[in-house]
Amino acid sequence: MKKYFVIGNPINHSLSPNLHNYWLKENNINAAYDKIKLEKNEIANFINEIKNQKISGCNVTVPFKKNVIPFLDKLSREADQTQSVNTITFEDGCTVGHNTDIFGFQKAIEATNYNIKDKKIFILGAGGVCPSIIFALNKMNVFKIIISNRTIQKAENLKTQFDNVDIVEWGNCPAFDVIINATSLGLNNEKINLNFSNTINDKLFYDTIYNPTETNFLKEGKKLGNHTENGKLMFIYQAAEAFKLWHKIEPKFNKEMFKLLEND
Ligand code: ATR
């Protein structure tokens, strides 16, 4: 039986096994998908297990999306440009790092039917998921990207990777058409201390968090009359793209599958 994993630390919260095991069963694939908590010094050994084909592939989550890169033989163009890997495959004798978060984010935004072309985008946060979001936004031809992060240095670092982003200090809220919460604020019911009351309705409030389903950030956006969307579809699309890379099958989306991700 083939074995797949998601690696990260912490990993307990991950719902990837629910989704992948469901799709494996649906498609009669003789494989299993599990989560495993690793320490940083265990990454090299783990990837070696893919190289010697004891493990068939893995997803990578926080905080290892960059740490895995030195141990891989090849990177896809998108993984290379974002320096972020969330899926590892074994192809023609090589371990290959891919980034399916970009696809996940793009598909999720497209599903909102909110046209973000030529729009002003304000991103809160500069952590692990941001390079993928910026890459996808650039692909979708947005007008401007502004970033704000508590630790400004991390926003400055992103600017060296993507020269078209602007930075504002944490606590400031510039005019925007779309605001994206890419921080972890909201996972534990925290509020984001920004004043959105000048926000005219019809904007898009997007949260990368999907558990809880509606963070305080989304609640406030909705109260002010804006469109809101959580990160669930992004999560599902990134998983579907990883599934396709490993099994060459496009998994189907259905109600039962969405139910597997309801855990709040
Ligand atoms: P990492 O920062 O290790 O990449 P992450 O989960 O990808 O981890 O990102 C967490 C994001 O949430 C960061 O942008 C973080 O801001 P800092 O870079 O300043 O740490 C942000 N974040 C977490 N807790 C926060 C808080 N209490 N206030 C503001 N931002 C917070």
What is this entry, summarized?
This protein is of the alpha/beta class and 264 residues long.
Descriptive overview:
The protein is built from nine helices and twelve strands. It is an alpha/beta fold and 264 residues long. The chain has two domains: 2-99 and 233-259, Leucine Dehydrogenase, chain A, domain 1 (Rossmann fold, 3-Layer(aba) Sandwich), CATH 3.40.50.10860; 102-230, NAD(P)-binding Rossmann-like Domain (Rossmann fold), CATH 3.40.50.720. The strands form two sheets. It has a six-stranded mixed β-sheet with strand order 2-1-3-5-6-4. The chain has a six-stranded parallel β-sheet with strand order 9-8-7-10-11-12, sandwiched between helices. Strand 5 (87-91) and strand 6 form a beta hairpin. The longest helix has 16 residues, at 232-247. Bound molecules: 2'-monophosphoadenosine-5'-diphosphate. Residues 62-63, 125-129, 149-151, 154, 183-185 line the site of 2'-monophosphoadenosine-5'-diphosphate.
CATH H-tier superfamily of the largest domain: NAD(P)-binding Rossmann-like Domain
Q: Structural class, please? A: alpha/beta
Order of helices and strands: EHEHEEHEEHEHEHEEEHEHH
Radius of gyration equals: 18 Å
- Average pLDDT over all residues: 96
Could you give the count of β-strands?
12
CATH architecture of the largest domain: 3-Layer(aba) Sandwich
Question: How many strands, which pairing sense, and closed or not: the largest β-sheet?
Answer: 6 strands, mixed
Portion in helices? 25-40%
Which hetero compounds are present in the coordinates? 2'-monophosphoadenosine-5'-diphosphate
Helical run tally:
9
| Main sheet strand line-up | 2-1-3-5-6-4
Shape: globular
CATH-assigned fold name of the largest domain: Rossmann fold
| CATH C-level category of the largest domain | Alpha Beta
The rounded distance between the terminal residues' Cα atoms is 32 Å
Beta-strand portion reads 15-25%
* Unreliable residue stretches: none
How many distinct domains?
A: 2
